[in-house]
Design brief:
By secondary structure, this protein is of the alpha/beta class. The protein has a 7-stranded mixed sheet, sandwiched between helices. A 6-stranded mixed sheet has the order 9-8-7-10-11-21, sandwiched between helices. The chain has a 3-stranded antiparallel sheet with strand order 5-6-22. The longest helix has 20 residues.
């Protein structure tokens, strides 16, 4: 019997383990790119190649979209509860094989085992919301006049596509897949070429869960693959998660081609620290936000705005906490050498501009000899420094000192992003004052990573998101569907109104 996750990944530790090559999943078959192009997938902990991933061109994209288009009529005709049954099966398979999925994520993108397992569990939580949709999405109907009723149903769009990043190879696809499929659409997923194995596993598990061939497809590649999806006329909607620079391009090109697009971009999240904050809560949560998942998440705290003259004890303790992060067991490697070079450049530049490096992660060496960057804290930064206003996407915390809360709020609101913001305080009025003024779509009070749990949706504001609505929760379902309104009358009424 074929294993539900496909070829087993046998790692049970961080010891380097080579794996199979990754091809495209089109119409229920694994096929290499027609042009034969490949790229090495590197384990960042060891700097060694796990396997190769195929790199698609326009023809490969067209074949995947054609397979999804051919599968759409039958999948659309499948009752929603039967579609959801596939997701129920998928949930069971993911839970039964959670350790294998966790170790594979750890090896392909560098997370520690606990962080990778938390990602899979969050992906399952997103899946649980999607499979609950048959109990929630029953449309609406009402008698609006004598003998006249109106009803609304949410219809699938057709072939949809998702473009996802390297940092969450399971969770971010699961932001999209459940709502897309339960709504009756078919899907083409383009994962990051740096971390394609999570999507490979999802393809195997969906087939084992009973999903018909062609309903879910995977195409691997880089820029040319993304452009192929954006330009293909049969792709009706696209979800994207990545940098703001690319999100703008994806949104503009997709919209110009008449597609529905929701593109989540980057972030420069600010945490405001008041001197009345609960000491242990703040000094544990702020470093965890900045350094967790190697700082490679759009919800990471990258700027700490310290308010007043009495916050020094908090900063001193956060320095102690940061120095206790063990490279390897507590903090994994960053994705590649280009990331190390980028982070090093930001820290060095800030230091040259007057920042004081309290904890220095440059030149860090971790086990395995891969691409490492240690926890870094810089004090006396300014919003004008690149490290104070641009996304670094690594375990780097820049501290800006201000005198008042209003000044802190102005700094947060002046940055072009609007993904997340948080305040640490024990004063309810102070917290409410800040929350009402932050220009961010996700806000935390004494929460370093204010990610909404299902059914509340994920999405930022300003240059952190392009398009309408959020990508998870009920907003996600609405994005992948279109409402059909039906007005019905069966008999002439004696007591007519203008509508009757």
């Amino acid at each position: 019997m074929t294993h539900p996750t496909g070829p087993r990944f046998d790692a049970t530790s961080y010891e380097f383990t080579r794996y199979i090559d990754v091809h495209n999943w089109i119409g229920g078959e694994w096929v290499p790119a027609a042009g034969g192009a490949k790229l090495e997938v590197v384990n960042p902990r060891h700097g060694a190649t796990i396997g190769d991933v195929t790199m698609s061109d326009g023809g490969d994209i067209d074949r995947a979209v054609a397979a999804a288009k051919a599968a759409f009529p039958a999948w659309r005709a499948t009752p929603m509860r039967e579609r959801a049954r596939v997701l129920h099966n998928l949930r069971r398979i993911m839970e039964d094989n959670i350790d294998e999925l966790t170790w594979l994520l750890s090896h392909e993108m560098g997370k520690t085992f606990p962080e990778a397992k938390a990602e899979v569990e969050k992906g399952i939580e997103c899946l649980e919301f999607g499979l609950s949709m048959p109990n929630m999405e029953n449309g609406a109907a009402q008698d609006v006049s004598r003998g006249v009723s109106c009803a609304v149903n949410y219809e699938p769009l057709g072939v949809c596509a998702g473009i996802t990043p390297f940092n969450f190879p399971i969770m971010v696809p699961m932001w999209m897949i459940p709502q897309v499929l339960v709504a009756g659409n078919t899907f083409v997923l383009k994962p990051s070429e740096k971390a394609p194995y999570g999507s490979m596993k999802l393809a195997h598990m969906l087939r084992a869960a009973g999903l018909p061939d062609g309903v879910f497809n995977v195409v691997n590649g880089a820029r040319e693959t993304v452009e192929g999806l954006l330009d293909n006329p049969d792709v009706k909607a696209i979800g994207f998660v990545g940098s703001t620079k690319v999100a703008k391009i994806v949104y503009a090109r997709g919209a110009a081609n008449g597609k529905r697009v929701l593109a989540l971009g980057g972030a420069k999240n600010h945490l405001v620290l008041m001197d009345d904050a609960e000491f242990e809560l703040a000094t544990e949560n702020i470093p965890a936000s900045a350094f967790g998942a190697q700082g490679q998440r759009c919800m990471a705290a990258s700027v700490l705005v310290a308010v007043g003259d009495n916050v020094q004890p908090f900063i001193d303790e956060m320095v102690n906490v940061a120095k206790q992060y063990d490279l390897g067991p507590k903090l994994g490697p960053v994705i590649d050498q280009a990331a190390v070079d980028r982070m090093t450049r930001y820290v060095t530049q800030a230091e040259e501009m007057g920042a004081k490096v309290l904890v220095d992660g440059r030149n860090a060496k971790g086990p395995g000899g891969g691409t490492w960057f240690g926890p870094t804290i810089m004090d006396h930064c300014t919003p004008e420094m690149p490290a104070g206003c641009e996304e670094i996407f690594g375990p780097v915390l820049s501290i800006i000192r201000v005198k008042t809360l209003d000044e802190a709020i102005r700094i947060e609101n002046h940055n072009p992003y609007g993904n997340a913001a948080a305040i640490f305080t024990t004063n309810g009025h102070t917290a409410r004052y800040a929350v009402d003024r932050f220009q961010a779509g996700m806000v935390g009070i004494n929460i370093g990573v204010p990610v909404p749990r299902e059914p509340f949706a994920f999405g930022g504001w300003n240059e952190s998101k392009f398009g309408h609505g959020d990508i998870t929760g009920y907003d996600g379902f609405r994005f992948w569907t279109r409402p059909r309104k039906v007005t019905t009358k069966w008999a002439k009424q004696v007591d007519q109104t203008w509508m009757g």
